[in-house]
Write a structure and sequence with these properties.
Number of domains: 1
Order of helices and strands: EHEHHH
Strand content: 5-15%
Largest sheet: 2 strands, parallel
Bound molecules: zinc ion
Strand order of the largest sheet: 1-2
Shape: extended
Helix content: 25-40%
Distance between the termini: 45 Å
Number of helices: 4
Length: 120
């Protein structure tokens, strides 16, 4: 999958079938348990952030059958561990020595604190 919308739910748990149907009906493409609030906090700190998701099942959009089991999810996860490791190391190697992106400027012009408190 290249691109899409990640729905973040509190876990650890699998979404209920009704949730999966709702997510899919709205065009949201993946469900995970991480990404929020990490993405928001990284943005507030001016850090670069991206997620690397390992899809373990096709829960969203599944309209019949028995769903997915923990054993099936773990089997896929373990089966993709080498691929995940390879992608992660290639990503780390490709990081530039100097950042040239908008992430570090997200707080430019923002005043933090209340007037008269903490220097505001
Ligand atoms: Zn960045």
């Amino acid at each position: 999958m290249d691109g899409g919308t990640l729905v973040v739910i509190e876990g650890p748990r699998f979404p209920a079938r009704a949730e999966s149907r709702w997510f899919s009906a709205n065009g949201w493409s993946a469900v995970g348990m991480a990404g929020h609030p990490e993405a928001v906090l990284a943005g507030e700190l001016g850090l670069c952030y991206t997620s690397l998701a390992l899809v373990t099942d096709h829960g969203a959009g599944v309209w019949s059958g028995d769903g997915v089991t923990c054993a099936e999810v773990l089997e896929v996860f373990v089966g993709n561990a080498d691929r995940l490791r390879t992608v992660l190391f290639k990503a780390l190697e490709s990081l530039p020595a100097e950042r040239d992106c908008v992430c570090s400027h997200t707080l430019d012009g923002v005043t933090v604190g209340l007037p008269g408190v903490l220097g505001g």
